[in-house]
Amino acid sequence: xxxxxxxxxxxxxxxxxxxxMSVFRCLKSNTQILNRNVMLFLxxxxxxxxxxxxxxxxxxxxxxxxxxxxxxxxxxSGVRYFIDVNFAGEFQIARQTNQFRRFSQNxxxxxxxxxxxxxxxxxxMSDEIRRSMKCRELLLPPWQ
Length: 144
Hints:
Blueprint: H1 8-23, H2 31-44, E1 48-56, E2 65-73, E3 80-84, H3 98-105, E4 111-113, H4 115-135
Helix pairs in contact: 1-2, 3-4
């Protein structure tokens, strides 16, 4: 997970996002408010970014869900970067296998990266969650 396509803009954005997280750490329990404040902090630094929300309805017995993140666009190139202020927390499950625990310990708390990088990590973690559930003989995920 360390060998992702990291560029200078991504590094600076990551550093600024961490600074914002430090300033607003008291809001950590409310991700929605934290996202908004981090986004506004980054906008004041000159970043072109917005808070995005995705929602999905119940389907085939699966529960309703939603997800919120910050979408930043690099001026000039138009390259999009995704910022998740609770990235590692999105992958927490109960009854983890040792292998899953090792993978999840390597996840960044705050993710800043491109779509391709995010897809690689989500695919890897989804496969590992699937293996962990199979090993524990669980049919449905034991989300915390």
